[in-house]
Amino acid sequence: MAQTAYIESTIPSFYHEVRGEPEMVARRNWTRLWWDVHSVKYDLVTSEAVLSEIRVGDYPNQDLVIAMMDGIALVPATDAIAEIVDVYVAHGVMPADPLGDALHLALASYHRCDFLLTWNCRHIANARKFAHIRRVNSMLGLFTPALATPLELLGEEDNEG
What we know:
Order of helices and strands: EHHEHHEHHEHEH
Largest sheet: 5 strands, parallel
CATH superfamily: 5'-nuclease
Distance between the termini: 31 Å
Structural class: alpha/beta
Strand content: 5-15%
Number of domains: 1
């Protein structure tokens, strides 16, 4: 059985990134490599929250970002998810943005996704926050997904020089 990866909005956004700064180019390249080569090893899921995020605003390649998410299974939001988000915010796990990071973490945790894949290293894929997230999820009886970037999920053959 394949592991499940919850795809957060930064993944399709970085796949179609156009900024030329070296950090942006590197993230784009790692995202494309993971998506094009390694994503087939996972059951990909996302949420309506992700789709809503990528539809907001007007940015380069937005139509490609939206199209990239077509056909990916959606995990449902339930009343329990809203309660989890409230606990995350109350315990300082995530900022008080009910439609943002706390929601993605709640969805991936509640639905027992093996990975929450993101480039949000400030609030989600942050090693300093992981123990706090794990403690709160344990308190709630929730599974804690691995919080990872595409770079962390590349195979060894991709990193050999």
